[in-house]
Amino acid sequence: METSTADLYDELGEALASVSLQFQDLGGQTRFTGTVRTIRCLEDNGLVKSVLNSPGNGAVLVVDGAGSLNTALMGDMIAEAAVANGWAGVVINGPIRDRAAVAKLPLGVKALGSNPRKSAKESAGEVDVPVEFGGVTFRPGARLWADEDGILVER
Ligand SMILES: O=C([O-])CC(=O)C(=O)O
Q1: Are 19 and 132 within 8 A, CB to CB?
Q2: Residue 153, helix vs strand vs coil
Q3: Is the CB of 97 under 6 A from ligand 1?
């Protein structure tokens, strides 16, 4: 991605929503863009695992974990699968784990932080529904841009 989110915002303005939550950049790729896919879940990453093990076609997976910091929603194995399956990145409203290994992968990863405790694997939750956090609605199919400054999404 060549253009910064700041330049993009100056160009397109209110056509874009800007995420106000302050995410950490935890992947080896800090600038990424792609079409939004979504998951809503709570302390259960079964759906995150199965979706990131399916073809990404350059998309960005937005995971709304309700901001719970209690369990990690992605680790290095799932992140490696995301790379192998052609995902551009993941934005997680929750923590990850294995951050040292994840930092080396060619994947965009924005998350709230890290927690070594694993999630449940029941696959409870929903896939490709609109999700909302940081003052922004993420709709499946919308374009998303992320870099060191933050995250922009088409309204
Ligand atoms: O299994 C999990 O919860 C996630 C994990 O540790 C990994 O992806 O390596």
Answers
A1: no
A2: strand
A3: yes
Length of the chain: 155
- How confident is residue 36, by pLDDT bands cut at 50, 70 and 90? very high
Q: Whose CA is nearest to atom 3 of ligand 1?
A: 118
- CA within 13 Å, CB half, 106: 5
Nearest ligand 1 atom to alpha carbon 97: 6
ipTM over 0.90: yes
Answer for the pair 45, 95: CB distance below 8 angstroms, yes or no.
no
Q: Residue 129: which domain range? A: 5-154
- Count of domains in the chain? 1
Model confidence pLDDT, tens digit, residues 69-118: 999 999 999 999 999 999 999 999 999 999 999 999 999 999 999 999 99
Q: 21 and 134 in contact (C-beta within 8 Å)?
A: yes
CATH of the domain at 12: 3.50.30.40
pLDDT tens digits along 39-65: 999 999 999 999 999 999 999 999 999
Q: Are 51 and 74 contacting, i.e. CB atoms less than 8 angstroms apart? A: no
What separation in Å is there between the alpha carbon of 14 and the centre of ligand 1? 37
Total H helices, total E strands in the chain: 4, 11
